Amino acid sequence: MRTVTGVVQHYAWGDLYSLPRLLHTEPDGSPWAEWWLGTHPGGPAQLDDGTPLSAVAGDLPYLLKLLAAAEPLSLQTHPDALTAQQGYLREHAAAIAVDDPRRIYRDPFAKPELLCAISPFDALCGFRPAAVTDLLLRSIGATGLADELREHGLQATVAALYRGTIPTAPTIAACRANATPECSVVADLDRRYPGEPSVVVALLLNLVHLHPGEAIFLGPGNLHAYLLGTGVEVMGASDNVVRGGLTPKHVDVEELLTVLSFEPLADPVVRPVQVDEFRYRYPTPGARFELWRFEVDGPLPHTATGRELAVCTDGDASPLSRGESAYLAPGESVEFDGFCTVYLVAER
After folding, report:
1. Which residue ranges form the domains of the chain, and what is each CATH number?
2. Were both Cys, which of 84, 114, 298, 330 would link to 79 (CB 3.0–4.6 Å)?
3. Boundaries of each Phosphomannose isomerase type I catalytic domain copy (predicted)?
């Protein structure tokens, strides 16, 4: 087991205090958005002696992060593997450089994600079932949008919103006149990004309030945005993001509409499967990784089944304490001892 030091990412939406406190580091006035633990070239982690993690682990197929959002992130989705491969080849043939801001497909890989809350965490995740959305829209007086959905369906309505053929102002006005959580989110997003169609599209998504230990899984085509909170995130080691709005970064509405899944998501919350008294596993269908949570309460042995990364988010236990992380090679064994919470990601 080797101690690993991550890399901080100072994105504008990050929290000033959450990650520094977790990592026992003094806040420096910068937003600490993410703490990367992996071999991704955008922020390669190191071992405690300064050796790159990749020197002992190779290129990991996943990236483990600590994430702290103080402001909403972009409304976005990610492609499946086939779409990523086709998009990568198409943009390569068009001579769009990999570092060009207009580039969407920077590699030929899918990017499934799982976010597990370690504080209360708010997010938008997947389209709400049509009947529930219809009831919500009519209850707040957004009858015009409700009628569009009933007559034309979800996919056509979303496309019309993004293409500007459905006015957004009446729906935003209805939200400003109501105090429901969904309306409050829309009003806040409109204040930040006035006139953007993504503000109204957000009203069609599930507003999720995660408790610590609960998660959301973001498979291909899932439209989502993190809003507020701190969590552990694990994702495929890819940079492929298709953005719809709520960001100064490149937005491609037509590509977004091609990639999106419009299948309703009735309950986006992922609750872990308790494997034994101390171990919980989070389902990640189709992904090359899985996330585990260990609630250590005394000696707890573990043997790595593949290349694994572990991070302690609470408590103190040998050999990890709060804010520390480590790499385990395949077949390597360790015994956690004490009282702490450890998140562990394993390849599969």
Report:
1. 7-124+209-270 (2.60.120.10), 130-201 (no CATH), 284-347 (2.60.120.10)
2. 84
3. 5-129
